[in-house]
Amino acid sequence: MCCLAYFRLEATLFCKELLQKETKMNTEPERKFGVVVVGVGRAGSVRIRDLRNPHASSAFLNLIGFVSRRELGSIDEVPQISLEDALSSQEVEVAFICSESSSHEDYIRQFLNAGKHVLVEYPMTLSWVAAKDLWELAEQKGKVLHEEHVELLMEEFAFLKKEVVGKDLLKGSLLFTAAPLEEERFGFPAFSGISRLTWLVSLFGELSLVSATLEERKEDQYMKMTVCLETENKSPLTWIEEKAPGLKRNRRLSFHFRSGSLENMPNVGINKNIFLKDQNIFVQKLLGQFSEEELAAEKKRILHCLWLAGEIQKHCCSKQ
After folding, report:
1. Is residue 271's pLDDT more than 90?
2. Least packed by Cβ within 10 Å: which of 56, 77, 153, 279?
3. Residue ranges of the Biliverdin reductase catalytic domain (predicted)?
4. Which residue out of 17, 148, 206, 241 is catalytically annotated?
5. Which of 8, 47, 196, 301 is catalytic?
6. Over 70: is that where the pLDDT of 57 sits?
């Protein structure tokens, strides 16, 4: 199977399992997995909300508490517990890691070594080597390691997938603008923006790096990363991340095919419950409802994107 077909197979599983496997979660669970949420920012708060509400996958999960560096006591009657207690408790079998990206690797390693399953918000780590090592650790421990990718559960991606399938790409570009992020907390732009790279890889297969540049004006908090990529068929793809105070969060794309062009994204609807959909996928993994082929395709895509992000960072830093 060629890499493009392999990655497209992996991308389709995010929709397929929601349709075909969710029915298996509608029965009364034989057991519940105790869960702790690490980090209670935007993602962590949404995770707590979904865990507390009566959803099919939430019936398999029992929210024990949350871990935070801040002294919060409780949130919506969910108690705060220490990291040490979360790691040592036999009640806690699963960790949802929703902290800033720079802390992911350490938390994942600690929870896997403590014998817990792990769901982590993207990016899993800020290096390909670390991610590969953590996946090997998860396999040694016999635990699920799941990296969230809600961008693949969005209505926009579902639309793009339908538009792209079976078409020959001539060239394409993807520009993302937003307010700046702290690199120390969220990583180099190729990692903090890895959801855009994931879109491109999921749509067009494995990519090769041609060039990468980073323009910065630190006094203005301005940053522009320009990455030139190539598909296996040598079709060029340009990915640009541009961030500055006041820049609105926006995504602009342009894909040119032999059979026509796609310029920008039409209004394709509201993204509903995408974190809950990701939770459903995670529970299905806990229940062994994914095939080895599906899991291998997902792992291959995630590691390829992390490897690309690392190569982009090297190219940019070597020219500064």
Report:
1. no
2. 77
3. 157-267
4. 148
5. 196
6. yes
pLDDT of residue 312 exceeding 60: yes
Of the listed 10, 147, 151, 241, which one is catalytic?
A: 151
Task: Give buried/exposed letters for 273-299 (b at 16+ CB in 10 A, else e).
Answer: ebbbbbbbbbbbbbbebbeeebeebbb
199 vs 62, 139, 170, 284, CA distance in Å? 32, 26, 17, 23
Residue-level length of the chain: 320
Q: Is 196 a catalytic residue?
A: yes
Residue 163's alpha-carbon distances to 16, 204, 247, 259, in angstroms, are: 18, 12, 28, 11
| CA count, 13 A, side-chain hemisphere, 54 | 2
From the centroid of its chain, how far is CA 25?
Answer: 23
- CB-based contact 168:203 (threshold 8 Å): no
Give 37's strand partners: 66, 96
Task: Say whether 121 is catalytic.
Answer: yes
Query: How does 157-174 read in b/e, with b if 16+ C-beta sit within 10 Å?
Result: bbbbbebbeeeebeebbb
Query: What would the pLDDT profile of 105-159 be if each residue is shown by its tens digit?
Result: 999 999 999 999 999 999 999 999 999 999 999 999 999 999 999 999 999 999 9
Q: How many CA atoms lie within 13 A of 176 on its CB side?
A: 17
The CB-side HSE value for 193 (13 A sphere, CA atoms) comes to 31
Q: Please identify which of the residues 10, 121, 241, 298 carries the catalytic annotation.
A: 121
Amino acid letter for position 208: S
Where do we find the tokens 């394409």?
A: 172
Catalytic choice (57, 68, 101, 122): 122
pTM listed for this prediction: 0.90
What are 291's two structure tokens? 């095939």
Active site includes 151? yes
